[in-house]
UniProtKB/TrEMBL annotation:
SMART domains xref list: CA (SM00112)
Subcellular location: Cell membrane
A GO MF label: beta-catenin binding
Keywords: Calcium, Cell adhesion, Cell membrane, Glycoprotein, Membrane, Metal-binding, Repeat, Signal, Transmembrane, Transmembrane helix
GO cellular component: adherens junction; catenin complex
Gene3D superfamilies named in the record: Cadherins, TCF3-CBD (Catenin binding domain)
Residues making up the signal peptide according to the UniProt record: 1-29
Species of the source: Scophthalmus maximus (Turbot)
Biological processes per GO annotation: adherens junction organization; calcium-dependent cell-cell adhesion via plasma membrane cell adhesion molecules; cell migration; cell morphogenesis; cell-cell adhesion mediated by cadherin; cell-cell junction assembly; homophilic cell adhesion via plasma membrane adhesion molecules; morphogenesis of an epithelium
Residues that span the membrane, as ranges: 565-586
Location (main, coarse): membrane
Biological classification of the source: Eukaryota, Metazoa, Chordata, Craniata, Vertebrata
Function comment: Cadherins are calcium-dependent cell adhesion proteins. They preferentially interact with themselves in a homophilic manner in connecting cells; cadherins may thus contribute to the sorting of heterogeneous cell types. PB-cadherins may have a role in the morphological organization of pituitary gland and brain tissues.
Name assigned to this protein: Cadherin-22
Length: 753
């Protein structure tokens, strides 16, 4: 079967396509048939009677998309070599669009497209052709598959699928700074012609921005973009297909470019001077006023700090973090009378300065804050303000002048001041003060020895406004006058030996004087006039010597202690006695505790009797009760010992009486009872939680004549041919391990050695 592609006015294009694609086909017949649009038939090859094979020209057709004609569009023709034009061949097609989009003339094999095709929706259709006998409907040849391709035309414009676009660029960026990239898509066939080749251009905003023709990257076209002047730009970017040639389709999109801020503007005070007023009585820290500097930048670039360049001795400034205002407040007290106006220079500085923009200038600004201090009515001020110290002789007369205090009204009016003494500080009214002059005079006689200083408080008030008051401390020192005679330091009593020699020192005396002369004390001693005629004694001024001790009584008298010293000595002795008693009590208490602990500790109690005596009959050498009562243990509190459990000495004695007549057999039975007794005791000890888990080992080593008891020596037991078996002791646990070792059967080799 031969496929032909002839379609009216599209024949030249179809012929080109056929010629360009013939290389992909294969010719297996020596003769091929062809047909043109006029239906002419040409034959090539030999005209012999040999069998003619089918010749395949091509297996695909082309149809142009977006056909707008009124008649069905001719696609092509299929033909078989066996068709001789007699009308006995029927052509059919099947597959995609067969019978709906594509129809075939059964007689001629012409294929037409009945619908308008769009390559962007479906680029090709796969169909199958069949030649059948018209009468029998039998296939004359195998079914042949072919493809109808929809040929592209430039019918789709470029589209910006991701638009609208929003980008950003920092202000003052250099020319050529990349902002963003836009991309347009064209649905046409990129492998056919230039229908899908897109180029970009700027329709609106090309003064400030450009776009790369091929990549769609938008860049800055100027270097002086200023956010404070214009903070955003809207561009119109166009994309054109056919590589921008005439007749190409185009699409456009809007691009919004936001200009971001940089710190290129310094802070600026709207005014060069601000005026505020504050009272001179305002407390420290009181806000005077607020000023603010503006910054044309935004965000963190507007953060600023304030500082005082001049006037910082009386005022301070802080920054309100919420409002970015400078708060000027009082640092030290103000005085209207000293200075009524203060000029404070406040400076605003940007916190975040971009080092790339330092060439633009200083990022700071200054303004003057003028503060006017208003006057208030203030209380009087004492001079000096810290208080006054006065002096007066103790022998001054009543009414004598002590001193004068001074106070004035600090206000401009300088109102008169009145003085008074705070009587809580001078309850005895020793001093008086003149209310007008402030002169302090004596109201009573002074005595320095009674009170050397007097501290009073003087109050000053305005004469017209007593609420305006202030106070000052006045300290008055009483100067000493020699008005007190010397006095003996203590009462003196002297004694003299009857055998004292002339010139012997009897006693020394000392005196005190309550006065305090500036040059210090110097005393002169003489005998009283009534004693000056006594020829037995003399008085020496400022001499020393050794006092004679006549006898024991005299010594005690000379060395007698004062009552205070005796009391101190007695107290020390009493403390020593108490300490000794306390130490003895503690020792006795600790000794009692140790004895109680020794009585309770029953671990490893070994009772040894290593002396030799006269046997059991000799009861004078040691106490036999310690041996006879060793097995008389108290029974367990929580266990029932059973009817067969008795103290061991009675059991042994009874067993021996019974065993004397029965012989060895009875002795063996007695040992079984012994084992049962010990096992019972072990069970009781294991069950009783109050019994300490300690082993007790006791030694029996006494000897004597006429003893009713047999020898209990373990050495004697090992040296005899005893038939006793103590192997069961090893089954009683760790506590009887040592005992089991003593009664273990000996090794023959060891015995031999």
């Amino acid at each position: 079967m031969t496929h032909f592609w002839t379609a009216g006015p599209w024949a030249p294009l179809a012929a080109l396509a056929l010629l360009s694609c013939c290389g992909f086909g294969s010719c297996e017949a020596s003769r091929t048939s062809g047909s043109t649009s006029e239906g002419n038939r040409q034959e090539q090859g030999p005209s012999s009677l040999e069998r003619v094979k089918r010749g395949w020209v091509w297996n695909q057709f082309f149809v142009v998309e977006e056909y707008t004609g009124t008649e069905p569009l001719y696609v092509g023709k299929i033909h078989t070599d066996s068709d001789e034009g007699e009308g006995n061949i029927k052509y059919t097609i099947s597959g995609e669009g067969a019978g709906s989009i594509f129809i075939i003339d059964e007689l001629t094999g012409d294929i037409h497209a009945t619908e308008r095709l769009d390559r962007e929706e479906k680029a090709f259709y796969t169909l199958r052709a069949q030649a059948r006998d018209r009468l029998s409907n039998d296939p004359l040849e195998p079914e042949s598959e072919f493809v109808i391709k929809v040929q592209d035309i430039n019918d789709s414009e470029p589209k910006f699928l991701e638009g609208p676009y929003i980008g950003s660029v920092a202000e003052l960026s250099p020319i050529g700074t990349s902002v963003m990239k836009v991309t347009a898509s064209d649905a046409d066939d990129p492998t056919y012609g230039s229908s899908a080749r897109v180029v970009y251009s700027v329709l609106d905003g090309e003064k400030f921005f450009t776009v790369d023709r091929h990549t769609g990257i938008i860049m800055t076209a100027v270097a002086d973009l200023d956010r404070e002047t214009q903070d955003r730009y809207e561009l119109v970017v166009k994309a054109t297909d056919m590589a921008g040639q005439m007749g190409g389709l185009s699409g456009s999109t809007t691009v919004t470019i936001v200009i971001t801020d940089v710190n290129d503007n310094p802070p600026r005070f709207p005014q060069k001077m601000y005026q505020f007023s504050v009272s001179e009585g305002a407390a420290m820290g009181t806000p005077v006023g607020r000023v603010i500097a503006t910054d044309a930048d935004m965000g963190d670039n507007t953060d600023m700090s304030y500082l005082i360049k001049e006037g910082g001795d009386l005022f301070k400034v802080s920054t309100d973090v919420e409002t970015q205002e400078a708060v000027v407040s009082i640092k030290k007290p103000l005085d209207f009378e000293s200075k009524r106006t203060h000029n404070v220079v406040v400076e605003a500085v940007n916190k975040h300065v971009d080092p790339r923009l330092v060439d633009l200038g200083s990022f700071r600004d200054q303004t003057i804050v003028r503060v006017s201090v208003s006057d208030i009515d203030e209380p009087p001020i004492f001079q000096p303000a810290e208080g006054t110290i006065m002096e007066v002789q103790e022998d001054a007369k009543v009414g004598a002048l002590v001193g004068v205090v001074t106070a004035r009204d600090p206000d401009v009016k300088n109102k008169p001041v009145r003085f008074s003494i705070d009587r809580t500080t001078d309850q005895e009214m020793i001093f008086h003060i003149d209310p007008d002059s402030g002169a302090i005079t004596l109201g009573k006689i002074l005595d320095r020895e009674t009170a050397g200083w007097h501290n009073i408080t003087v109050k000053a008030v305005e004469a017209e406004n007593h609420t305006m008051a202030s106070h000052s401390a006045v300290s008055i020192r009483i100067l000493d006058v020699n008005d007190n005679p010397p006095e003996l330091a203590t009462p003196y009593e002297a004694s003299i030996c009857e055998d004292a020699k002339p010139g012997q020192l009897i006693h020394t005396i000392s005196v005190v004087d309550r006065d305090e002369p500036q040059t210090g004390h110097r005393f002169y001693f003489t005998l009283a006039p009534e004693a000056s005629s006594n020829r037995h004694f003399t008085l020496w001024d400022v001499k020393e010597g050794a006092i004679q001790s006549c006898n024991a009584t005299a010594y005690v008298m000379s060395a007698a202690l004062s009552p205070g010293a005796l009391i101190a000595l007695l107290v020390c002795m009493l403390i020593l006695i108490v300490l000794v008693l306390l130490i003895l009590t503690l020792k006795r208490h600790r000794k009692g505790q140790r004895m109680a602990e020794d009585e309770e500790d029953m671990r490893d109690n070994v009772i040894k009797y290593n002396d030799e005596g006269g046997g059991e009959q000799d009861t004078q050498a040691y106490d036999m009760s310690a041996l006879r009562n060793l097995y008389d243990f108290p029974e367990a509190k929580s266990c029932d010992p059973g009817p067969d459990l008795r103290p061991l000495p009675q059991w042994v004695q009874a067993s021996r009486v019974a065993g004397g007549a029965e012989g060895p057999a009875a002795a063996m039975a007695d040992f079984s009872q012994f084992k049962g007794y010990i096992r019972k005791k072990v069970e009781q000890a294991d069950a009783d939680l109050s019994v300490p888990p300690y082993d007790s080992f006791q030694t029996y080593a006494f000897e004597g004549s006429s003893s009713p008891a047999l020898s209990l020596s373990s050495i004697h037991t090992l040296s005899t041919a005893s038939e006793q078996d103590f192997s069961y002791l090893s089954d009683w646990g760790p506590r009887f391990r040592q005992l089991a070792g003593y009664y273990a059967p000996g090794n023959p080799e060891e015995e031999g050695s």
